[in-house]
């Protein structure tokens, strides 16, 4: 017989756990206490031992996060260094040189305007060779061609339509924006070096590298281009010579910012003294500055030997003074058929330009090409010799005699009468190949030399050496004079590498019935000579 206790026990075992706990409170309390000990107590102990602090993010972590996301989000607007590619415009403005307009188009005689090229990454590969510059053998020393005999008048705004200058956005904005968008770690050289780097950098030793952003004006947007340098007008078929820029070895040379240039010379005056190559540089500067403002011609007379322009918004005057020999000179008598020699007074100033020195704040002086002509030298009012004259009872003197003395007295005039920043621009080489200028010589190359492909030789090298020697002597003397700063703009090496930049046969109409000499002395506009003004501004900034 089964007892009642056994029946109750069996029934209890068959009940669910919750019912058992209800019928046995002591067991329920015991289980609850055990659960509290093994769960709640350890949690409280952990909380007391390690209190929860407010959430915070360190500034370094914030910076890293910001830089990380900035790097991810700026791929379309990042401003690359020149090593990685050209500098595109930021979204909030469009510099004039990036605007798609006729300003960037180089018209060709047959096909019309060529649209602005696509973005190109300039090459920065340097030749492992030495810094020595190489050159073809120079041609015999002969008188320069007929188109250098006298200055011809540049086209006037009155005679040709002048397009309105584009609204210029300073390139300085591009440089400042690059700081905001560049990668946090960047070992590439920036487009604008700091001031110390600029002062240490040798601007005159380097290579020409591709620049697909060029040119910055055309023969249709600038009225100042002389006919003999208007290569595109007269049918030059290639445009590759336009798309290079000078890259010094130790730094990057910025393209001239015309607005920055005009601000720097506000209220000042600048003069250029020399021959038709000097005039070539002046016309380049007029074209580069025309993107901001066209000047007013305020020349005191119709004489094209001495031109003066005024940029009214900046109160800046620009003087172009013709003096191919730099010293007092008399021309051959046109009424005397036997008179074919220039007379140079090697111990007398050319007062046509030296009398203007007190009006100038900046001066660029240059010469050289005219000293290949037959000339007679005078010293102390007497004939001291001649060059290429073959006159009886007259001492034949070498090239270095007359040029050295003329340059020396011209630098003396600057030392005695000028209190500003003066530049001696060195000799601009010629590139006749296949003969001299009067023997069918031509310049048909379409790309620059590398510096290991050519060296200066002969008379061009001799003229350059004279300039260096006379400059050093004048510089030493100039240190004694307060206020005068004399600097050398040594463009010879850079221009020696540009046989492709001359007009050649494209400085005049192509007429099969007429034989005209090729011009391998002057420079096409636009063209490599624009770099001279890039360097001019950079040297002015360094000095200021």
Question: What this model shows, in words?
Answer:
The chain is built from 13 helices and 13 strands. It has helices at residues 4-14, 17-23, 25-49, 59-73, 171-181, 195-200, 258-264, 276-289, 351-354, 399-417, 458-478, 492-496, 530-543, and strands at 206-210, 244-248, 269-274, 296-297, 306-311, 316-322, 327-330, 342-349, 362-365, 375-379, 382-387, 421-425, 485-489. It is elongated, with a radius of gyration of 38 Å. InterPro entries: TBL, TBL_C, TBL_N. Pfam families: PC-Esterase, PMR5N. Residues 253-539 form the Trichome birefringence-like C-terminal domain. It is a single-pass membrane protein.
Give me some keywords for this one.
13 helices, four-stranded mixed beta sheet, alpha/beta, 544 residues
Roughly what is the average pLDDT, rounded to an integer?
75
Poorly predicted runs of 5 or more residues: 6-15, 52-194
- Which bin fits the share of residues in helices? 25-40%
Strand order within the widest beta sheet: 4-5-6-3-9-12-13
- What fraction of residues sit in β-strands? 5-15%
Largest sheet, in brief, is: 7 strands, mixed
Structural class: alpha/beta
What would you call the shape? Answer: elongated
Number of strands: 13
Domain Trichome birefringence-like N-terminal: 200-252
Biased composition (Polar residues): 118-141
Region (Disordered): 79-198
InterPro entries: TBL, TBL_C, TBL_N
């Amino acid at each position: 017989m089964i007892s009642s206790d056994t029946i109750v026990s069996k029934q209890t075992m068959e009940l669910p756990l919750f019912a058992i706990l209800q019928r046995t409170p002591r067991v329920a309390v015991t289980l609850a206490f055990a659960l509290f000990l093994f769960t709640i107590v350890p949690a409280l102990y952990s909380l007391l031992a390690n209190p929860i602090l407010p959430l915070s993010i360190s500034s370094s972590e914030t910076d890293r996060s910001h830089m990380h996301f900035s790097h991810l989000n700026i791929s379309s607007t990042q401003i690359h260094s020149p090593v990685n590619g050209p500098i595109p415009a930021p979204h909030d403005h469009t510099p004039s040189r990036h605007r798609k307009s006729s300003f960037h188009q180089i018209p060709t005689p047959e096909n019309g305007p060529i649209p602005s090229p696509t973005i190109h990454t300039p090459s920065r590969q340097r030749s492992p060779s030495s810094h020595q510059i190489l050159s073809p053998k120079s041609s015999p020393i002969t008188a320069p061609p007929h188109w250098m005999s006298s200055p011809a008048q540049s086209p006037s705004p009155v005679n040709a339509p002048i397009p309105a200058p584009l609204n210029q956005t300073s390139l300085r904005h591009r440089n400042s924006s690059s700081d905001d968008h560049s990668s946090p770690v960047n070992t590439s050289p920036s487009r604008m070096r700091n001031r110390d780097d600029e002062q240490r950098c040798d601007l005159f030793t380097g290579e020409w590298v591709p620049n697909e952003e060029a040119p910055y004006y055309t023969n249709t947007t600038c009225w100042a281009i002389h006919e003999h340098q208007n290569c595109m007008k007269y049918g030059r078929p290639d445009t590759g010579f336009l798309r290079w820029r000078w890259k010094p070895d130790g730094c990057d040379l910025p393209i001239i910012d015309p607005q920055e240039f005009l601000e720097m010379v506000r209220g000042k005056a600048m003069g250029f003294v020399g021959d038709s190559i000097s005039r070539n540089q002046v016309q380049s500067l007029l074209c580069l500055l025309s993107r901001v403002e066209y000047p007013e011609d305020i020349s005191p007379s119709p004489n094209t030997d001495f031109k003066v322009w005024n940029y009214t918004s900046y109160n800046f005057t620009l003087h172009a003074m013709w003096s191919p020999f730099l010293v007092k000179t008399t021309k051959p008598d046109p009424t005397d058929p036997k008179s074919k020699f220039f007379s140079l007074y090697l111990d007398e100033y050319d007062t046509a330009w030296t009398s203007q020195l007190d009006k100038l704040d900046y001066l660029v002086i240059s010469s050289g090409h005219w000293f290949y002509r037959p000339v007679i030298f005078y010293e102390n009012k007497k004939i001291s010799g001649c060059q290429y004259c073959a006159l009886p009872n007259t001492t034949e003197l070498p090239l270095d005699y007359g040029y050295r003395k003329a340059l020396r007295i011209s630098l003396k005039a600057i030392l005695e009468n000028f209190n500003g920043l003066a530049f001696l621009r060195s000799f601009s080489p010629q590139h006749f190949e296949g003969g001299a200028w009067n023997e069918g010589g031509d310049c048909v190359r379409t790309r620059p030399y590398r510096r290991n492909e050519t060296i200066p030789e002969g008379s061009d090298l001799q003229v350059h050496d004279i300039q260096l020697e006379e400059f050093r002597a004048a510089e030493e003397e100039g240190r004694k004079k307060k206020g005068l700063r004399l600097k050398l703009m040594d463009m010879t090496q850079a221009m020696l590498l540009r046989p492709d930049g001359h007009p050649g046969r494209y400085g005049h109409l192509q007429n099969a019935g007429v034989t005209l000499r090729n011009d391998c002395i002057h420079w096409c506009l636009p063209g490599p000579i624009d770099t001279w003004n890039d360097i001019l501004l950079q040297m002015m900034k360094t000095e200021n």
